[in-house]
Design a protein that fits this description.
389 residues; alpha+beta; Phage tail proteins - horseshoe like beta roll fold; Phage tail protein beta-alpha-beta fold; Phage tail proteins - 2 layer sandwich fold; 13-stranded mixed beta sheet; three-stranded mixed beta sheet
Length: 389
């Protein structure tokens, strides 16, 4: 069905292009591993559904000629009742396959991100559906992590990326990205207007939420370095509360002052990210000629929700089509600057091995010193000197 923009919602599955839909939901969230979609058609044409349209089939979703999502049909449901017949198709983007499938190993082993990508994804049967990987910084592809049997491919890749504090996400083309999703916004900055009396409003509804129960004026990170010396990082700032609130967090894997400072910065950003949310529903799926995308920047302008007047980023975006409301987009917005990349992932076994090597080196050093003091050579044999010496 062609809309007022001269475009159609197109689902291509099993070689068939389906355009007539009554209900559509396409959800994308930066902090949720896989995008999800659902299509419903009431009273579809009589006749058998083509065999090629089935669960487990690759699907592409377009709005006009613009690709929105590449994924897999997880579920197909046909139902009949007095009210009529219904066909429902739902699924996730290609990240869903990495979430579902395990790394093909039977024993715990050390694996690099490069091996995970090349050998266990692209060179595996999944390589026929995963369209590739895009790494913003490939200098650390050789760092190794411990992968356990039954661990999912997605979790292993996310852990390997986190070795240098990187994030992973799937784009609409079915390419897994590794880096910072907010480093290069996918859309130019947009303005949302919600005025009490204004003909130029482009927002249907909006709600602004504050939950500062996890926001603290005083934060402290406590840990110990390799020598057992205490590490402390702390910060102090103004909060909405009229009094000081202290939060002390212990982190056993923090080994340096720099790591402690990075941890406290991450905790503070995560708390702020959770505390402030603006949800806005806007008409249609497009803005300035292209569909809404996550990570885009928004300036919200309102004389009704004055507290929400600020710069925001699109953390989540949900497209909807219903019979009664037509096409709408729900935007989940977070304050610009509150996102922080993951903390560096460190192997526990690597830390133990490092401590073991250090103890061994210290022991060896003491042994050599004792030999010299006793007049022994490097092999522990006595050194005899004449009287003239």
């Amino acid at each position: 069905m062609i809309d007022s923009n001269g475009k159609e919602i197109r689902l291509i599955v099993g070689g068939y292009e389906c355009k007539e839909w009554d209900d559509v939901t396409i959800d994308s969230q930066v902090d949720v591993p896989a995008d999800a979609f659902s299509f419903s058609l009431y009273n579809p044409p009589l006749g058998h559904l083509p065999e090629a349209i089935k669960a487990g089939t690759t699907a592409e979703i377009y709005y006009g000629d613009e690709l929105i999502l590449t994924g897999i049909i997880d579920k197909l449901k046909e139902s009949v009742s007095r009210a009529g017949r219904t066909l429902q198709l739902s699924g996730r983007d290609l990240a869903g396959q990495l979430i579902d499938c395990s790394v093909p190993i039977n024993n715990s082993r050390q694996i690099t991100l490069s091996t995970l990508i090349q050998d266990y994804v692209l060179a595996s049967p999944l390589g026929t559906v995963i369209h590739g990987f895009r790494v913003q910084n490939d200098a650390w592809l050789k760092n190794k992590i411990t992968v356990e049997p039954s661990e999912s491919l997605y979790d292993a890749i996310a852990k390997a990326a986190q070795v240098t504090g990187q994030y992973i996400w799937m784009d609409e083309q079915g390419v897994m990205n590794i880096g910072n999703p907010f480093s290069q916004p996918q859309q130019p900055s947009q303005t949302l207007n919600l005025m009490f009396e204004d003909q130029k409003n482009n927002v249907i509804s909006a709600s602004y939420d504050e939950d500062v129960s996890n926001v603290f004026s005083d934060l402290k990170i406590l840990s110990q370095d390799e020598k057992g010396q205490h590490i402390l990082a702390e910060t102090n700032r103004m909060t909405p509360y009229a009094y000081a609130r202290l939060k002390i967090i212990t982190m056993a894997d923090v080994e340096t002052q720099a790591e402690a400072q990075a941890a406290i910065n991450k905790v503070q950003h995560d708390n702020d990210l959770e505390a402030y949310t603006l949800t806005a529903t806007v008409p249609d799926w497009v803005i300035n000629g292209s569909v809404w995308k996550t990570t885009g920047q928004i300036h919200f302008n309102s004389d009704v929700l004055i507290r929400a007047n600020a710069k925001w980023v699109v953390m989540g975006r949900t497209f909807r089509l219903t019979r009664h409301e037509g096409k709408t987009t729900e935007l989940k917005l977070k304050r610009q600057g509150d996102w922080a990349q993951p903390l560096l992932y460190k192997e526990k076994e690597e830390k133990k091995a490092k401590e073991k090597r250090k103890r061994k080196k210290k022991k060896t050093s003491k042994a050599k010193k004792t030999h010299a003091d006793l007049g022994l050579d490097e092999d522990g044999y006595g050194i005899y000197r004449g009287a003239s010496q």
